[in-house]
Amino acid sequence: MSQIVIARQFCGPPNSGNGGYVCGVLAKDIKGAATSVLRAPVPLDVHLHLANDDAAVVLTDGDGGLVGRSDPAPDAELPQPPAFPGPEAAREAGRRYQGLTTRFHPICFTCGTEREDGDGLRVFVGQVQGAAPGVVAGTWTPHAVFADAAGQVSTEVIWAALDCPGYFAWVEKEGRHGALLGTMTGEVVRRPKAGEETVVVAWPLERQGRKELAGVALFNARGELMARAHQVWIVMGPRS
């Protein structure tokens, strides 16, 4: 067992960890695809316990309460992305990001508009012109502070970059706000390098009661797949 701290820099909502980032922390040492499940809000700036349970990785709080768990998912059927929009269309879509005009989580590590580059990721996605409702895209150029000595972006930051786009796919499709990431099954095919422009694409899959399922993928500028994930979002409160 080891102790870790999810620093406030890596928040989603103001007082809890960014779901994608924490899922990535749990999954980063699992080879291949992994399924991370968050069972409770992730406290910030406190000691948490990370332990192995056979092939799984388990995160608990100071009282032993389960916060999250990640398991290998070698047989996971990850969603096939829609047509690659290309960097220019993704940049155009990103300029339609709803968070530029409406307050969602402005300090979120992934999508917060009040975070500076190198502090947050500033992954801004919007509806792709001509695509089905809810297919969103944007570009993301990772900052050097998120890279290792070889210049490659860390796995947990890649998972964070894939987080919020799936939420905004459903915002664009239905115009409804308010959901939390519950489960994320993902794989990283190749880690991008700092300064490398990438394209993030997300799309709604299906609704299952209060669950909204989304797919999300990361490409390089030539359209080569770098990472992808299947997400389960839990709608908060009654649907409007």
H-E order: EHEEEEHEEHHEEEE
Beta strand count: 11
Sheet having the most strands:
11 strands, antiparallel
Helix content: 10-25%
What is the rounded distance between the termini?
Answer: 44 Å
Cα-based radius of gyration, to the nearest Å = 16 Å
Q: How would you classify the helix and strand content by structural class?
A: alpha+beta
Characterize the structure shown.
This protein is of the alpha+beta class. The protein contains 4 helices and 11 strands; from the N terminus they run E-H-E-E-E-E-H-E-E-H-H-E-E-E-E. Strands 1-3-4-5-2-8-11-10-9-7-6 form an 11-stranded antiparallel beta sheet. Strand 10 (211-220) and strand 11 (225-235) form a beta hairpin.
Describe what is shown at a glance:
This protein is α+β, with helices and mostly antiparallel strands and 240 residues long. It has helices at 19-27, 87-94, 155-161, 163-174, and strands at 2-5, 34-38, 47-53, 56-60, 66-72, 126-127, 136-140, 179-188, 198-208, 211-220, 225-235.
Tags for this model:
240 residues; alpha+beta; 11-stranded antiparallel beta sheet; 4 helices; 11 strands
Helices and strands in order:
Layout lengths: L1 E4 L13 H9 L6 E5 L8 E7 L2 E5 L5 E7 L14 H8 L31 E2 L8 E5 L14 H7 L1 H12 L4 E10 L9 E11 L2 E10 L4 E11 L5
Antiparallel strand pairs: 1-3, 2-5, 2-8, 3-4, 4-5, 6-7, 7-9, 8-11, 9-10, 10-11
Helix pairs in contact: 1-3
